[in-house]
Task: structure prediction
Amino acid sequence: MDLRFAIVALLVAPSMCLDCPVGWASYNGECFHFSKSTASWLDAQAACRQMGGYLATDDNKEKHDFLTNIASVIHSFGETVFWLGGDDYLFEGVWRWEETGGPVVSFTKWAPGYPTNSSDTNCLGMVFVDTELLWKDMTCGSSHHGKRQATTVRPTKHHKVTHAHRTHPPSPNHYYICEKQAFHSAPVIG
Result:
């Protein structure tokens, strides 16, 4: 009996699985959650912490390509911003990853003209520029900008009003990406 248990343990151990919670995507031993709601950078950071993670780092080309593929499927229309865990709060223009405190230097994807290094844009967001997902420094309190105003039109006997008129161009929605380590689980044997 003990011999059979040892053999099963040897066979199962190499096939241990790395898993992510439901609603998270797995990539290279890490789990990623793309939010379904908008938030400011600070609220996004708090939401990721509540889920046991942190705002994602975009620290190498392979991970960036993975994030781009998922982001393009999930938010394929309109201008969308994805918050990442980078900021320059401590020293203006010195970007660091929030989770590790390490500098943002080995891999960057800044959009042309960014970072602006303005004192009011201290948080890192990603936005599609054409088909490429690029970084921009942004105001941390942003979650949705812009104003929409309804036109004052009264329905008549022949015309029905069914929509509002947008007086300003559409503004980006600020979603966020959380990251955490995948956990090990044993496959079910049966």
